[in-house]
Every structure is written in structure tokens, then in C-alpha cells.
Amino acid sequence: MKTISFLLLAFLVSIVANAQYSFNVQVSGKGAPVLLIPGYSCSGEVWNETVDHLKDSYECHVLTLPGYAGVAPIESSNILETVKNDILTYVSDKKLNKPMLIGHSLGAFMSMWLSSEAPDTFGKVVCVDGVPFISAMTNPMVTEESIKNNPMFDKATIIERYKQTPDEGYVENMTTAMLQQVSDSVHAKQVAIWSFKSDRATLGSTMVEMSLTDLRDDIVKVKQPVLILASTFMTKENSLRIYNEQYKLLPNKRIEVADSKHFIMYDATTWFFNQIDAFLNE
């Protein structure tokens, strides 16, 4: 009975501790700390295989962002900025010593934001198929100023559009869409389910927030080594061109292109593990 009571108390303490942050955190493994940040709409479970690979050598702090994959949404005029500030608070509260960052897609964008704003706080960074300014991927001349008044990025309109998306057929339609980003149908359906469980207002808001935040100049402040893993966008040469444009001002970087769609950790798992192992052990 005492054991059960102790376990229950520990569980409740964990819930209370997580409640002070906008995101959910799961911690496992032992060793040097690493924060793993998932991409748009995804659960931290997207890193399950990665955590299994790293947990014997690293203490893995796996985030799921507010409003994503069933985590409670938050009220904020800028959700992603709130998350960024909460991550900095979390690192300070937990006294994590230069934790490494591994981020996918939006998580890679967030990793660059954190490293730009607090370059002395974090260790090495792995950016998995994410960029400093998503709106400029097809046209590097695009700036925040040039698109901020574009109706395509009106937050209220986008949120309302997301809210009006019917539940019926959502997972099936999203699974089909996700097959453009991941090769196998099992993972495509899982990502679709996470999207279905996400708060629609959060999906709309965070998409606009990321689309209107340009970090391309800010990343010059990043001090630590950064490994950038890109998917193949039409051709590997085209991916290298886009990523070199996006990360032009990043001082200490290496860009590698996978023979993979967007979810590199799923499509090219062995290659992905080999890349991060070599980088983290340098």
C-alpha cells in the first residue's frame, strides 16, 4: 500500500511540475541532456524510435507542444513565442547543462529560435528538415514585411478555416495528404491521428506564427555546431540550394540531404541514426 501511495504521489508531482509549462514533457534515459521537439501537430511520440536509440547515453526530454496531439491548448497571442520562453524557463528550472536540441520541422525552427536568442544556453543542435523562414523556401526574396498584410496569413481567417474542417473523413483525408511527407501508410495514419487530436485553433495560429517569423538574420548569433538534415525536395541538388539559402548566415553548420521524404527519422532511420551519432560524438 505504501508503495502504491508513493507511486501515486510521484505521478501527481510530475503532473503538477509539467503544469507550469505550456507543453508536456516526458523524460527518460541517462546521460547528457537532449531536448527533442516534434514538428507541426505531432506528438512527442514521433521521437519514440530516436529515444530508444539515444536513451542509454542521453537523458531525453521529449516535448509535445500545447494544443498538439491531445495536449491542452493555451491562450496566447503568439503560442510559439510562449513555448520558446517556456522552454528557456524549463532548462533553467531543471538546471540542464547546455542541453542539446533535436527538432523536426517546426521543432527545427524552434531550435534555431532558442539557439539564436540564448546561444550560451544550449549545446549542439540537429535540425531535421526545418528552416529558419518557411515562407521563403520557394522565393528567398520573401520577407516578413512583404507578406505580413497578405490575406493568406490573416490569423483569424486561417483559424476559422481550420475550425470549419469537418471531423468526418479527417483522418482518412489527412493520411492521404501525409503520404506526401512520409513513405509508409502506418506512419502517415499516425501523423493524421495526431493532427485530428490537435486543437484546430492552435493548428491555424501556429502555422501563421511560423510563416511570419523570419530567423534568417538571427541565426548568425548561434554559436554551437548545427547539423541540418534535409529531405529530398525534387532533387538533392535542389534541397542543398534551398537549405544553403535558408541557413546562409549560420556560422557553424553541416548540411546533409537524405534520400527521404519529410519525416526523415521514419523514412531513412539507419541513415538518420548514423548522422546524429557521428555528430553528437564529434
UniProtKB/TrEMBL annotation:
InterPro entries: AB_hydrolase_1, AB_hydrolase_fold, AB_hydrolase_sf
Residues of the signal peptide: 1-19
Occurrences of domain AB hydrolase-1 (ranges): 33-268
Coiled-coil residue windows: none
Gene3D superfamilies with a match to the protein in the record: alpha/beta hydrolase
Keyword Signal recorded: yes
Pfam families: Abhydrolase_1
Keyword S-adenosyl-L-methionine: no
GO molecular function, one term: hydrolase activity
PANTHER family referenced in this protein's UniProt entry, alphabetically: MONOACYLGLYCEROL LIPASE (PTHR43798)
Record's protein name: Alpha/beta hydrolase
Organism listed in the record: Neptunitalea lumnitzerae
